[in-house]
Amino acid sequence: MDVTSLLIFAGALIVAAGSPGPSIGALVARVISRGYRDVLPFLLAMWIGEAIWLSLAVWGLAVVAQTFHLVFTIIKYVGVAYLLYLAWKMWTAPVAIGDSDLPNENSAGKLFVTGLAVTLGNPKIMMFYMALLPTIIDLGHVTILGWAELICVMVLVLITVDLFWIVLAAQARRFLRSARAMRIANRTSATMMAGAAAAIATR
């Protein structure tokens, strides 16, 4: 695939992925409330979810996505339900606990499933790959090598964008040392998480 097409794709993806949406809201809320150390499973799931949407678009499987609309709808609402559960846990979380006391529902496996559900059910991501991508890339002439190049560009862009948001959220977390500040942060994060769930559910 020519460099110009890859650069146009990267630029469009930076704008789409970098703009705050349900996935970014959930990521920032997670980092502010619990820190960045255990966020990798959530990130991996988000990147895999985007790779799935990109692959569906490239290989002309939009019809498959429409055929299995019910499956994606179920995934969407499972993600919404779990985000609301996490929002409730953040809202009611004690503010003076150590890392060893973190509830075990934040396991790597559950974080991964949540990230995947959020990404697969996110209409913003879905529309980018299924509606906008075909106007940027001539999908009819994408080879396996071209698909691999798109995946590589996608991963590099998402790593850059997500790390940017993680650093911002981690810096904000540093200033939240008092119990009152932590309570405000937890409840702000809970509101953002619930907002992400609402944004996904209502689109």
TrEMBL record:
Keywords linked to the UniProt accession: Cell membrane, Membrane, Transmembrane, Transmembrane helix
Membrane topology, as annotated: Multi-pass membrane protein
Highest taxon of the lineage: Bacteria
Entry protein name: Lysine transporter LysE
Location in the cell: Cell membrane
GO cellular component term of the entry, any: plasma membrane
GO molecular function list: amino acid transmembrane transporter activity
This protein's record includes keyword Amino-acid biosynthesis: no
Record organism: Paramesorhizobium deserti
Spans traversing the lipid bilayer: 6-28, 40-62, 68-88, 109-132, 144-170
tRNA-binding among keywords: no
